What does this fold into?
Amino acid sequence: SAPGGASRGHRGAATGTGGTASTANTAGTGRRHLLEHLEHLALVDFRDAEGVERLQKAIQFADQLHEVNTDGVEPMDSVLEDRCLYLREDDVTEGNCTKELLENATEKVEEYFVAPPGNIPLPKLEEQETFLQGSQ
Amino acid sequence: MVPRGIAARWRRAAAAPGTGRGRSAGVRRWRRTGRIMLRASLRQVSAALKEGRVAPTELCQRCLALIKNTKFLNAYITVAEETALKQAEESEERYKRGQPLGILDGIPIAVKDNFNTAGIETTCASNMLKGYISPYNATVVQKLLDQGAVLLGKTNLDEFAMGSGSTDGVFGPVRNPWSYSKQYKEKSVPKSHSEDEESNWVITGGSSGGSAAAVSSFTCFAALGSDTGGSTRNPAAHCGVVGLKPTYGLISRHGLIPLVNSMDVPGILTRSVDDAAVLLGSLAGHDPKDSTTIQDDFKPFELPNLTDVSKLSIGIPKEYHAPGLSSEILALWSKAADLFKNAGAKVVEVSLPHTPYSIVCYHVLCTAEVASNMARFDGLEYGHRSDMKDSTESMYAATRREGFNDVVRGRILSGNYFLLKQNYEKYFVKAQKVRRLIANDFVKVFRSGVDILLTPTTLSDAVPYTEFIQEDNRTRSAQDDILTQAANMAGLPAISVPTALSERGLPVGLQFIGRSFQEKQLLTVAKWFEKQVQFPVIQLEEVERHDSDVFQHQKSASFS
It folds into this structure.
């Protein structure tokens, strides 16, 4: 989501690398879509070119993994994989704490958390000029 | 048998002149004057409480006063003065009735600010949770309170525990108490300007730097940290305290705000290995609220005094001779290996071949789990909420933009990248496969007959803050977690034991890694080592002046 005016620049910077004009353009568009997609998924923004650079470095760093031969190796989710997972009885053990749970919410009505209108996607990049202007 | 003279030789070589202090002499002095009461071990002060030589309220007040006096360290985010005093009074009542709850009753402790504490703010050093008051206690916090411990406050950290310096939180960096020690001041280049002193202070390491600084500066007797990639052991090494990362599944994570669910464990920071064993005994065990705690019975243990190490096999993993390891730490490491060898233990070089990839693997798994875990912070139910009202999604995005720092946002974005449909196999599943290879390396070494692995905890001693912030958080974490995170990948117990002072007069710790759920063996060996090296006591003028001032002004009748 988020980019306000400041984020314009980082996309420009991120797209201007390598190749002929046309391949750079295609790659640039792909990349721009990728960054936008990530921001929508993550619901945080890159903020500036530095944020994009940070991701690039993180990917480069992660790419070292491909030096390791993992043929026939099962992925490991948990170090406790050989043990039975504890499942407690399906009984209600606590509850009646609506008041406590609502205490930390900024906006609520009666026993409900209040959200702004839903089902409105974040604005597309072109429409983002004014987006988030109210936020620092 | 330990050949005579080894310990003494080590002591001479490792400690700065005049800083070595025999334990028994220390106890005597403490009894005589009370001046170093706050510097006693948890077990010593517990005995003093039991014998009525000090009252819980007095102890609590002294700690609170010292916290105020050492405020410049920035070790605490929240000091819970009122509730702490109330808890101390309750403890005092129990002692008066002759019914203390156990060894922890009346002991002042501190808790890292990423554990939920009912009624006391829990911030994770983030704008996202400023002002957040949890309706419940983390299981480990509840256990400490149930055993009568006095919770002094919540300690500083990197935002959401993401970092290795305790420099990246919204409340500012933590200062390493050793920056103000006589030992460091004597060794660092003489300064004429006060601004030099200002730029000379060193970091605590992280992310549990506040807890490490609190224990190291004597404001509490033990503290909880958390350890996902080294966050307890790293600051323990830099602050000259003991840092224990227990086996994954031994201590409940319920109420610890998660970073990486498959690696997080609550960590223990104390001034001695014995004290760490006490804390472990009071915290370990199955918790119905955390399905990843194992159901085996855990029996609290006291550590024996090892006299014979000849049946021990100590492994020295050659891959831990990592690029960037300081020659000083390398020398201390091999000296420690010699110490075991000379005492009759079998010391063997071993190989954990996938170690160099461990930090890369950690990076991918960590960011992926962070991306998932941080999704809970949307402004609706708790924490910061942006004023943005256009739509739910825009409110989410604005909230997260305002609430998270660059490091957290960066990890969320990287994690989302590694989890993209087209990248999931390539990065996330690949990392999980490499994780198995890393875990298997340890299994093979332990199967070959090695009991304990001995490694450095950090690549170097603590660096000045001004130097530390030259590099970005990811680069720093990759360097700083390099020797510690493999134990998290494999879920193994590991402990950093303060070993000696560097040439700059700063603490250096060495790490022992044990077999899963073999904490007793690990701590027994660590205790033997601790006894041999006789790590010097920090000479903090602030504390000494303060201690004697307090003593002059409020002589306690209960304290002889």
The helical segments of chain A are 7-15, 21-42, 49-62, 98-102. The radius of gyration of chain A is 23 Å.
